[in-house]
Amino acid sequence: MSAAPKSIFYLILGMGLILFQSCKPEAEEVTKPNIVLILTDDQGWGDLGINGNSQVNTPNIDQLAKAGVQFSRFYVDPVCSPTRAEILTGRYHPRTGVYSTSEGGERLDLDEKTIAEIFQSNGYNTAGYGKWHNGSQPPYHPNNRGFEEYYGFTSGHWGNYFSPMLERNGEVTKGKGFIIDDLTDNALSFIENHKNDPFFVYLAYNTPHSPMQVPDIWWDKYKDATIDSNHRYGDKETINKTRAAYALTENIDWNVGRLVDKLDSLKLLENTIVIYLSDNGPNGWRWNEGLKGIKGSTDEGGVRSPFILYWKDHLKPQIISQIASAIDILPSLVDLAGINNPFDKPNDGLSLKPLLTESKPEWPERYVYSHWRGRVSVRNQTYILDNENQLFDLSTDPGQLNPIAEPSEAILSELTQAKNDWIKTVLSELNPEREEVFPVGFEDSKYTLLPARDGLPHGGIKRSSIHPNSSYFTNWTSTTDSVTWDTDILTSGKYKATVYYTCKASAIGSTLVLKQGSNELKTLIKEAHDSDYVAAEYDRSPRDESYEKDYLPQEMGIIQLDKGHHPLSMKASEIKGSEFIELRLLVLERVN
């Protein structure tokens, strides 16, 4: 073959190879699955139709469960913050620094890598909507933990569900309509805007947590409903609270339906993993399939949660009976998404992928632990050793009605040893005596919010509720009274201070003083704002938490804050009339 024909031959061969490469089927390309993680608040195992409750209407969630994977033995923690910490990190909550639900004890340690950070670093657009409850001030704020978009509230509970004060990416804003509908609207917009790129959406609803505020459209379906109290704790049941919980659950179900419909209309269902669960047991004595205990308990009723995982055309419908836990969510999603080696620290959870995808998976015997306020229980596939070291056979006695009178020494010693080892190696990492200092002026954030929740009242000032999360300060009558925040100023500089308050007309002309050491800022109260309780007419059952008011913002001006551990204090240098302001929030905005 001559030189010219050879060159033509290789040219044709090369063009053929290029053509072959360009014609490879798209199926060989790896597409990252989207993820939508839906977490409800204080919704028990028994609050869904799919789990046997005939009194609540949840067709969309039930259908998601029937078409997806259901876990019949899935466990979370007894209360909100610990469960959220375990979902975010895949690690037992004592390792993450979470020991309480307010006043700093809910904060996730800064050296913990979150699920959002992991997925963001792997090309995902990340968003969180709703209740955060793992730290309020930057760098604990969700925008500093991997969420590029955040809309909701960072405290443990909220006092108003109707167009409430919320925040968007650290800036105070006003919600639009009923909070669950509003959060879902924002999630739908984010999905629409990122439909062509992989996304991770954490949709953390704050119902049916109290206060039991329900829109008329949902309450009307349940306000006269007959509630069957013929269950284990029927004598303790508050009927209207149960009705409200079911009405709020039906509202959640409607919003889950909207979410699935949006994914379907965008042709994203086949490439989106949808997860649904709750953060702890029910917040009241209602039907829960006879399980022992409610929210706050380390028994089955306090920690057994619905857990549904749906991925159209990828996971076959099935019910999985192996025990699993909140710590398993992160490693499972990382495995399903094909992300390699994302963890900086040892992971406590297991990837559930073998259970989800294999017909005969090899699965280890394991323990699941529950802890709250020093109470610890441990489970294996058959037994539970409760916090009083009573042994129950859950295969024959799922309601923990009768402790085993003469337990096998081998089984008892095995679970006792597992429990003691966990207390020594995991629970011992928790330091509930640590000093809680609230950071101000994190370099990557413009705003720091210091709510009344994180402040301390002095003198005659009182908190509006024993539950601090959504409270405000009241009964401020003397110039010797004060409020302080124990703050660590991370960046020296000038900050614009804004207070959110209410007051009577008689307080006009009073003087409010903000101080940090020798730095001082004064402002006159110029406008009365004697607000009534907001949306109180939607309470369907008496609340324990504080009511919300319509708080008025007033810019105080600019104050210099010096770097270091310096308490911030507020006092009144002059009070007109018999009462000063009621204080809900101080916002500090870096201006240089």
TrEMBL record:
<dbReference type="InterPro" id="IPR017850">
    <property type="entry name" value="Alkaline_phosphatase_core_sf"/>
</dbReference>
<dbReference type="GO" id="GO:0004065">
    <property type="term" value="F:arylsulfatase activity"/>
</dbReference>
<protein>
    <submittedName>
        <fullName>Arylsulfatase A-like enzyme</fullName>
    </submittedName>
</protein>
<dbReference type="Pfam" id="PF00884">
    <property type="entry name" value="Sulfatase"/>
</dbReference>
<dbReference type="InterPro" id="IPR050738">
    <property type="entry name" value="Sulfatase"/>
</dbReference>
<keyword id="KW-0479">Metal-binding</keyword>
<keyword id="KW-0378">Hydrolase</keyword>
<comment type="similarity">
    <text>Belongs to the sulfatase family.</text>
</comment>
<feature type="domain" description="Sulfatase N-terminal">
    <location>
        <begin position="33"/>
        <end position="339"/>
    </location>
</feature>
<keyword id="KW-0106">Calcium</keyword>
<dbReference type="InterPro" id="IPR024607">
    <property type="entry name" value="Sulfatase_CS"/>
</dbReference>
<dbReference type="GO" id="GO:0046872">
    <property type="term" value="F:metal ion binding"/>
</dbReference>
<dbReference type="InterPro" id="IPR000917">
    <property type="entry name" value="Sulfatase_N"/>
</dbReference>
